[in-house]
Amino acid sequence: MKARRAVGREKRRGAEILVITGLSGSGKTHVMRALEDGGWFCVDNLPTALIPRFAELIRDSEELQRSALVVDVREREFVRRFPAVYRLIRARGVKASLLFLEADEKVLQRRFSETRRPHPMAVNEPVTEGIKDERQALAPIRKMADRILDTSAYTVHELREHVRDYYDRRSLGGDTVVSILSFGYKYGVPSEADLVFDVRFLPNPNFVRGLKRLTGNQRAVVRFMRAQPDTAGFLRRLVGFLAFVLPRYVREGKSYLTIAIGCTGGRHRSVMIANALRDALVARGYAPKLRHRDMRLT
């Protein structure tokens, strides 16, 4: 078992545990390191049977009020015992949330090939079999997750930056952390999305001469999009809807909310709309995180 302690103390806010699990090779270690950099106390590979005891300990420790645990199939009893243990600590009043990491099979294969590490569930068999067996074994735990994060499109740097932004301690303490994510439907709907808005009804700059190779971050595309009558109408209604629901999510205690904006390739329309939505929410007093998932892929 490997433990790391962050330096520094903060005002006590009540015990919170973030449990990180998911597929081998999906980036759990990188997530843990990013959290550690953000001031969390992190424990890797804690035996499932010790989780309730750890939850009791952090109640009495000011330094461990925000803790993250990485638990997975490296422990033989994890799949069988974890669901009951997780329900137990939540029943005892500990503020616990479950983050499940996953990635496409081809991406996982490539990562194992690059690191040359054996898959924990592939004993004397190809890594592909271990990936399939693990995905099937973890399916019930995946259903329990508060948040599912597909890391297929992330570099190590992007994943750690995303985690630092998403779980920034300064953003915690009662308010909902709002994230805006642009994406392309051709690459799949983001698994972490809470609200999904499809902007494929807007005219596509991809078919306009001179705009195809640009992105929604560039002025020519923005001007083209702003010139379309439906762009302003859609943004007005979208911002009005979010202005209505966001305070209610905060009131209900939702910690994180991801708003996904999708177009065909995730390069033009969704990027421009996501940027405009970010600016509109900032003007209303929010501090949303922004990421363009597929902008470089098309």
Rg over CA atoms: 21 Å
Major sheet: order of its strands?
A: 1-3-4-2-5-6
**Beta-strand residue fraction:** 15-25%
Q: Residue share in helices?
A: 25-40%
Number of strands: 10
Q: Uncertain spans, ≥5 residues at pLDDT below 50?
A: 1-12, 169-173
Order of helices and strands: EEHEHEHEHHEHEEHHEHE
Structural class: alpha/beta
- Averaging pLDDT over every residue, what do you get? 87
How would you characterize the largest beta sheet? 6 strands, mixed
The tally of helices reads 9
Query: Which of globular, elongated, flat, extended, rod-shaped describes the shape?
Result: globular
The first-to-last residue Cα distance is 42 Å
Set down the secondary structure blueprint:
Layout: E1 2-4, E2 16-22, H1 28-37, E3 41-44, H2 51-59, E4 66-70, H3 78-91, E5 95-102, H4 105-115, H5 127-144, E6 147-150, H6 156-166, E7 177-184, E8 195-198, H7 219-226, H8 229-251, E9 256-263, H9 269-283, E10 289-292
Parallel strand pairs: 2-4, 2-5, 3-4, 5-6, 7-9, 7-10, 8-9
Antiparallel strand pairs: 1-3
Helix pairs in contact: 1-6, 4-5, 8-9
Could you please describe the fold and organization of this structure?
The structure is a single chain. With 298 residues, the chain is of the alpha/beta class. Helix content is 40%, strand content 18%. The chain has helices spanning 28-37, 51-59, 78-91, 105-115, 127-144, 156-166, 219-226, 229-251, 269-283; strands spanning 2-4, 16-22, 41-44, 66-70, 95-102, 147-150, 177-184, 195-198, 256-263, 289-292. It has a six-stranded mixed sheet, with helices on both faces. Helix 1 crosses helix 6 (156-166). The chain is globular. Residues 1-12 and 169-173 have low confidence and may be disordered.
